Amino acid sequence: MRRKNYNTLPSVVSFINLLFLTTGFRIYAMKKIIVIIVCSLTAGISISQTIAQKLQKAWQQFENDEQLKHAISSLYVIDAVTGKVVFDKNSGIGLAPASTQKIITAATAFELLGKDYRYKTIIGYNGKIQENSIVGNLFIKGSGDPTLGSPRWKNTGRNFVLDEIISVFQKLGIKKIAGNVYFDETGFSVQPLPDGWIWQDLGNYYGAGAWCINWNENQYDLILKSGEKINEPTTILKTDPEMNLYSLVNQIKTAPKGSGDNGYIYLSPYNVSGFTQGTIPAGENNYTISGSISYPALQFSSELERAFNEKSISIEKSYKVFIEKIANNRTWPSLDSSLYTHYSPSLDSIVYWFLKKSINLYGEALVKTIAYEKKGYGATDTGVNIVKDFWKQKGIDPFELNLYDGSGLSPLNRVTTHAQVEVLKYAKKQNWFSYFYNALPEFNGMKMKSGTISDVKGFCGYQKSKEGKEYIFSFIVNNYNGMSLSIVNKMYKVLDFLK
After folding, report:
1. What's the rounded Cα separation, in Å, for the pair 336 and 462?
2. 15 in a domain, yes or no?
3. pTM higher than the cut 0.85
4. Same domain as 283, residue 296
5. Domain end marker among 345, 368, 383
6. Does residue 14 sit in the same domain as residue 86?
7. Which of 75, 293, 352, 425 is exposed most, by the fewest CB atoms within 10 A?
8. H or E segment at 279?
9. What is the dihedral of CA 164, 169, 172, 173, to 10 degrees?
10. pLDDT of the chain, 499 residues: tens digit per residue
């Protein structure tokens, strides 16, 4: 690393002396100007050194904390304007980044897909429309849209999408489909989950996989009633949306009041039977825990069937989901004509929620979408390799990005703080940066993405100090002990020196 040569100060003074002697300025004026210049130079040096020194002192105290006795931590800080390193501790060591990894997926998606990218779901048919019937089959052809059925936008919600489809039928006067309804997921791998995701996560909302057809963010709410006494059984009251194709054996028990949500749902992809375990607080009559839909296309088909029935639109044959085709090695007919295309919100809007609310599904969908758009097939491993190769071309060693997914949920991921800062530095120079920056949450008065998995905590982002200095940073801790809130507060104390 090159360092500024502050030993040039005497030569500056000599030059000023010469200037004043040759021009006849008075000595007292010369002394005043020299003092101003010297103070300005030394003040700049002092501020720079003070921040580095303060971070070093704070870091030593942080590392010596009992919570970090068996942990490994990394903090990397650069000047956002000059790119010069302000502080570096373990920046070349790969650590589990948790959801801070999302900044890599988001920046790559902006570059490779574009901020205006939109997913499309095609409603179409083969055969012909005759009188009030489709003499052929209906197709719902997905493209991996993670917002289909999402409540986050008015024009993506479940009822809105279903009403859109019904409206098309009503406008054309179609009352009957003479064939099947096919949910076509041809473009993506049937494997919805990345490598390394753990069993305890899979049935819960944050462990939802990514399919070619997603629905309601692949999430549902399980509504429970607890007992009044500890260890009493709980009762499942309902699900929202209604999940009448699935069954859960409920083993969640009652815990003391105020004990919080410690209930887990165990339901693997494509399965219709699962179970629950854990506890919820006593005295709750309407307690909600959120689960992941094990096969979104099946849930979508159930809700579409209900909507068709309510509007007296009949299906002569049956509803076909894509996994049946793969499992039975069957040949499906092809869509010939489009009735309607549903478009997702633009990518910049998707990334906003992806980073702001840390939605794992969006990250997994984006990685698969990158693979689909660049290679013609949406598989996680392909998408991850494209992401790594993109950043390799930007100068980041691919071994600094040992990625397995797009969201950071896999504990197999290993990323360096140096790589994260390089990604953030690159993003700052791009024309889409304002959308990226606005999507970052605010914690501790700082614009930064957080990350949390078991015994892992991370923060990375941007900060402007009260002196006007701009910094880019990444801070990751692995294998700490004790409470997460406690380690977070200690990390904040270190990061406070950037304010």
Report:
1. 49
2. yes
3. yes
4. yes
5. 345
6. no
7. 425
8. strand 273-281
9. -140
10. 333 333 433 443 443 343 334 444 444 444 444 444 444 444 444 445 689 999 999 999 999 999 999 999 999 999 999 999 999 999 999 999 999 999 999 999 999 999 999 999 999 999 999 999 999 999 999 999 999 999 999 999 999 999 999 999 999 999 999 999 999 999 999 999 999 999 999 999 999 999 999 999 999 999 999 999 999 999 999 999 999 888 999 999 999 999 999 999 999 999 999 999 999 999 999 999 999 999 999 999 999 999 999 999 999 999 999 999 999 999 999 999 999 999 999 999 999 999 999 999 999 999 999 999 999 999 999 999 999 999 999 999 999 999 999 999 999 999 999 999 999 999 999 999 999 999 999 999 999 999 999 999 999 999 999 999 999 999 999 999 999 999 999 999 999 999 9
Tell whether 260 and 130 lie within a shared domain.
yes
Please work out, in degrees rounded to the nearest 5, the angle formed at the alpha carbon of residue 230 by the alpha carbons of 224 and 235. Answer: 20
DSSP SS3 for 424: helix
Residue 426 lies in domain: 65-115+348-498
Query: Do 108 and 173 reside in the same domain of the chain?
Result: no
Chain CA centroid to CA 256, Å: 33
Alpha-carbon distance of 112 to 374, in angstroms, equals 9
Kindly report the CATH number assigned to the domain that includes residue 443.
3.40.710.10
| Number of domains present in the structure of the chain | 3
Structure tokens belonging to residue 377: 């097939």
In this structure, are residues 452 and 487 in contact, taking their beta carbons and an 8 Å threshold? no
Clarify whether residues 395 and 257 are in a common domain: no
Phi, psi dihedral angles at 486 (to 5 degrees):
-65, -45
- Chosen domain end from 310, 327, 345: 345
How far apart, in whole angstroms, are the C-alpha atoms of residue 405 and residue 413?
8
E strand spans, 366-469:
401-402, 414-415, 442-443, 446-453, 456-464
Is 53 within the bounds of a domain? no
- 315 SS3 class: strand
109 and 129 inside one domain: no
Q: Indicate whether 303 belongs to any domain.
A: yes
Same domain, 231 and 189: yes
109 and 122 in a single domain? The answer is no
Q: What is the CATH number of the domain that holds 248?
A: 3.50.80.20
Return the ∠ at Cα 452 (arms to 448 and 456), rounded to 5°. Answer: 110
Q: Which of 444, 425, 480, 448 is nearest to 85 (CA)?
A: 425
| Residue corresponding to tokens 């060693």 | 397
Structural domain contains residue 177? yes
